Amino acid sequence: MYLYIQLAITGVSMGMLYALMAMGLILIVKAVGVLNFAHGQLFMLGSYLTFMLTHQWNLPLWGVVLCGIVVFAICGAAYMFACYWPLRNSPWKVTVIISTLGASIALEELVRIIWGSNPLTMKPIVEGTLYIGSAYLSYQYLFIILIGGGLMAFVYFLFEKSFIGKLMQATAQDRYAADLIGIPTVVAIVATYMISMCLSGTGGWLAGPLFLVSQSLSSFAQKAFAGIVLGGFGSVKGAIVGCILIGLIESFSLLITDSYKDAIVFLVLIIVLVVRPTGIFGEKIAEKA
Amino acid sequence: MAECLLEVRNVNKAFGGVVTAENVNMTVEAGQIRGLIGPNGAGKTTLLNLISGIYDVDSGQIIFNGQDVTKLPTHKRARMGIGRTFQSPRFMNRANIEDNLKVGTDLLNQFGYIQSFFGKKGHDFLADLNELMEIAGFTFDWEDQITALPYGQQKLLEIVRAMLARPKVILVDEPAAGLNKQEQERASQLLFKAVKSGMGVVLIEHSMDMVMSICDRITVLSFGRVIAEGVPVEIANNKDVVEAYLGGDDDA
Amino acid sequence: MKKALALLTVAIMMFSMVACGSGNNGNGGNGGSGDGGDSSDPIYIGVIDAFTGDRASNGEYSKEGADMAMNEINEAGGVMGREVVLVYEDDQGTEAGGTNAFQKIVSENDLAAVCLNKYSSMVLAMEQFVAAEGIPAICCGSSVNIESSSTPNLFSTRKSDSGSGVTIANWCNELGLTKVAILHAPDALGTGMTPVIEATFEELGIEAVSVQQFATEEKNFAPYIAVIADSGCDGIIGIAQQQEAGLIMSAIGEAGLGVPCIGGSAFAQQVAIETSGGACDGWYSVTAFSPTATNEPTASWIADYEELYGRAPDMTSACMYDAVKLFCAAMEEKQSTEAEDIIAWLTELDGYEGVCSNYTYNGTPMLSSSEYVVQINGTTSEVVSRVDS
After folding, report:
1. Is the pLDDT of residue A288 over 50?
2. How many whole angstroms separate alpha carbon C374 and alpha carbon C1?
């Protein structure tokens, strides 16, 4: 019984991490129409940067949060100007994709040059474990759910309810027209990248204490992508639901098998796509006028 | 002599080997509708894009409201007061009418980013809107999806949206395409309203009825060059123009 | 302007490809000869390990150990009066990368011998190419498949997992365990050692109440540990590489199960100890090498290493050091760089004292036959027992 509670909470928690990455990924897709292949590396970078803030600069928690937001925003903007901006008017969309592929390799090795190749340990936000019967949970898992949920609410409010969010949506749907109406699209795009990096970077910060700060954190992107596809490509809501489902499936599949855990996750993904190709909350992908 | 709002001075633009604008000169005065006509491929939409800033000129200048805007990015020119409509309406298709109208207006200019964050409406917004919708001749529900409106109403609404931002010049690209006679009349009325408030209008249009009836002056483009300029009567009788159109022009 | 920029970019790319093309360590010996050439030419020994990717930390340790050996040998006059030069190639920590690296290094260089890394899956992937090339190769892998390999030019500085597996199982018996849970890696290490442990358990009357194989590059061990906790075991065995060992120890520590835990060699290495966050305390490990060994000549070597590099060595540093030294000793004693001579010398090995182990040839590629059971105390490990077979 307690085993199920434990598997459920770790599942939701992992799902939240994937969802944070997925939201960031979808925002970029919506803003500039290109899939960001370096997204896992941004997640990993977030982990290393927060390691730097907590363990090398020794900032208190509030310092980490404030500096973290600033550092992530700068990285997001830098990433945008490096990988997307010079190629934004290219007639082939694939050039931006290749640029992000290059960035993925560069970021992993950059991180290795700065911090070395040994995995680093990071202290959790609150040390300690919660015991529910025989189920035990590191407090960090609960923090992931809390902070992840908070960020999701913030993103929802930003995009659906605020004027700035409307401007960003207008830019995302039709950059050409948005420019002509007077929306400074470069600001909207930079803002999107900054928010995306903050989301992924926060995910990295939350994951670091649990999974060690190392280059292999970038592989989380696979599950995030699976979550996006499962929930319906293009929809933020779908991405969140899909990712949490992936987290739960991953967790509970351990009851059936051990080594084929990942295979089960992707098997479920295939089945869902066969039954419903656009994903659970799927929308039609073609949206350009 | 009315104030010159927009001047295109000796503008050249070529894409690879294709010359789309060659020494083009054009002016738009306050309260004036400037027609821009020519056979397909003459470079009319390209010229609008050069004025808007989508394309950079190879040489020449765009002077708007006395300022040289040749090097300014698109959105800055838009904020300075160059409005634009399109052949096919370009709205935020997934948003409702309210969002579409609010995004397209000059809220940023009036209030800046912070207050705009909270979606403050301009004081004249509703009054303007009601006046324009009367002319446009239909009503809508704020909460309706923009895609629920029929094509003709969408096109009229696009002109309304452009005017709500109180621009100095509106660039209108084929407003009559796809509209029935009544709707075309409404579109013309909206443009008249625009010029009466002191705006200038650049009108690209293939429907000669509309062009001849509402334009004050007309510029004719062919293969990127201005082949004629003058009042409608002069243009209608110009041999070069007739030739350029190969004798036929009434294809509304 | 744009054209000039494009040309410049292409030029830079071509230059960097050429510059990086010949391995990590200086020239690739394209003009030199490893096999019987001019007596003043350097002797080239290849080293293939991970210098990029997930397993890059292993490559760092390997390079440190190998370089240390090379420098010592050269300072003492080299081999047959000739300088020994190491040629490095990156295998990126993957099987495909390994086979590519091997093909590249042997085709671009005239090598007398080659050192391979400790990841048995990768070594096995390269095996057919090593056999075809006929070049003497020493790896640091311990898989049972390497032990049963019939490639005459492949050797290992380790003891086979089959032997280590028996040692682990016997140790469980020593501790009086009767219901043991096993969590193992999906690679050759995990899949090779586990059946050996299970077979030995059967003989000893110990029940394996839970046997789980985790996924490749797994990071989230909490679910696996939850299943173990549910199984009612009185002991846990962990078989994994360093990257996962620390995480496993950490996850088990968190569960607070309070049962004895025994791990493979990776669990006693520095990386695993550091990344376990203190949860390694009390763990046993069956390992050929411990960074806090007290026997000679290992202890002195560890001290020298720490002075040179400022950190404790990993098992792979010691293995690579020994591998380079073995090759050089072979060439010096046989006064030859020919493959058959080096291989002959290695098959005559009897009691060669290395820093990682004592080496003797017993008819299989595995040259080592001794290992230790250590227990981790804080961050150091103490030898509890030595096992010879």
Report:
1. no
2. 66
Q: What is the ipTM of this complex?
A: 0.73
Residues C338 and C313 in one domain: yes
Mutate to test the interface with A, among C63, C211, C219 (most CBs of A within 10 A): C219
Q: How far apart are CA C213 and CA C217, in angstroms?
A: 12
Region of residue C36 (phi > 0: left; psi between -120 and 50: alpha; otherwise: beta): left
Let me know if residue B229 belongs to a domain: yes
Number of domains in chain C: 2
In this complex, does chain A touch chain C, defined as having at least 3 beta-carbon pairs under 8 Å apart?
yes
Residues C220 and C275 in one domain: yes
A-chain residues within 8 Å CB-CB of B119? 162-163, 166
* Residue % of chain C over a pLDDT of 90: 57
Position B117 in a domain: no
Q: Is the pTM of this model over 0.80?
A: no
Please tell me the total count of domains within chain B: 1
Q: Which of A145-149, A151-155, B134-138, B222-226 has the weakest average pLDDT?
A: B134-138
10 Å Cβ neighbour count for A59? 17
Of C218, C252, C287, the residue that ends a domain is C287
Measured CA to CA, the distance from residue A52 to residue A55 in angstroms comes to 6
**Which tens digits make up the pLDDT trace of C326-368?**
999 999 999 999 999 999 999 999 989 899 888 999 889 999 9
Would you state the pLDDT for residue B99?
76
Residue C264 falls inside a structural domain: yes
**Do both C152 and C257 map to the same domain?**
no
CATH of the domain at C21: 3.40.50.2300
Q: Which 36-65 residues of chain B touch chain A by CB within 8 A? A: 52-54
* Closest Cα in chain A, distance from residue B235 (Å): 31
The residue range of the domain holding B27 is: 4-87+162-244
Average pLDDT over residues C215-229: 86
Say if residue C168 is in the same domain as residue C56: no
Whether the CB-CB separation of A25 and A238 falls below 8 Å is answered with no
Across the interface, do C219 and A212 touch by the CB < 8 Å criterion?
yes
- Statement to judge: residues C168 and C222 lie in one domain: yes
d(CA A209, nearest CA chain C) in Å: 10
Whether the pLDDT of residue A280 is over 50: the answer is yes
* Cα distance between residue C113 and residue C46, in whole Å: 6
CB atoms A258 and C212 under 8 Å: yes
Cβ separation of A182 and B92 shorter than 8 Å? no
Interval B186-202: pLDDT, tens: 999 999 998 898 899 99
Return the partners of chain B (3 or more C-beta pairs < 8 Å). A
Establish if C53 touches chain A: CB-CB under 8 angstroms.
yes
Neighbours of chain C (3+ CB pairs under 8 A): A
Residues of A in contact with B84 (CB under 8 A): 180-181
Neighbours of B110 (CB within 10 A): 16
Q: Is residue A284 part of a domain?
A: no
CA distance from start to end of chain A: 53
Longest Cα separation, chain B: 57
Which residues partner with B15 through β-bridges?
B18
Is A214 within 8 Å of C60 when comparing Cβ atoms? Answer: no
Write out the residue range of the structural domain in which residue C235 sits.
161-287
* Same-domain pairing of C187 and C138: no
Cα angle, residue A172 at apex, residues A167 and A176 outer, rounded to 5°:
90
pLDDT bracket for residue A289 (50, 70, 90)? very low
Q: Which domain holds residue A123?
A: 2-275
Among B52, B94, B107, the residue with its CB nearest the CB of A173 is B94
- Span A160-211, pLDDT tens digits: 777 778 788 888 888 888 888 878 888 889 999 999 999 999 999 999 988 8
User: Residue C356: inside a domain, yes or no?
Assistant: yes
